[in-house]
Amino acid sequence: MKKSFWLAVLAYLLPTFPLGYFWHLVTFADRYHQLAMYRDDVIIPLGLMSMVVQALLFAWAYPRLFGSRNGSWTQGAAKFGVFFGALAWSFAVLPVAAKYRMSSVPDFLLLETVFTVLQFVIVSPLVALAYRSSGSKSVGDPAA
Q: pTM of the entire structure?
């Protein structure tokens, strides 16, 4: 696989894991505890495994959907962030709020929405830069 793919995997994974860890288990740990929905013994390897799967899929999808053929790297980053940020929010925030018991659905929605926006504001330009820095073109681009 190309260097740009693995750089994009790291561009997603390296900020996402510490951001998720500190957001959920340190910075806002008391707020999440008050929501009374998380287990006391969080299984961190499962969260990390989820992030690895996401990183691999996002790194694969980026050049096919948002690569340089479809505009500048900044446009690609913005499109990636909006598209996959909304998708992640729809998978990880809305159904959890709908299905799980918690003391405050609005508080959960606020915390997780801000987290998701922050996550994609950080990782989207990094993923785009991973492909830009290697000079990778979109799939189907004759120069690829």
A: 0.88
Task: Report the first-to-last Cα separation within the chain, whole angstroms.
Answer: 14
pLDDT tens, the chain, 144 aa long: 699 999 999 999 999 999 999 999 999 999 999 999 888 899 999 999 999 999 999 999 999 999 766 568 899 999 999 999 999 999 999 999 999 999 999 999 999 999 999 999 999 999 999 998 655 444 444 333
Cβ-proximal residues to 117 (8 Å cutoff; 6+ apart), any chain:
85
Q: Is 134 exposed, middle or buried (0-12, 13-18, 19+ CB in 10 A)?
A: middle
Domain range list for the chain: 3-133
CA distance 101 to 4: 41
Q: Return d(Cα 12, Cα 61) in angstroms, integer.
A: 13
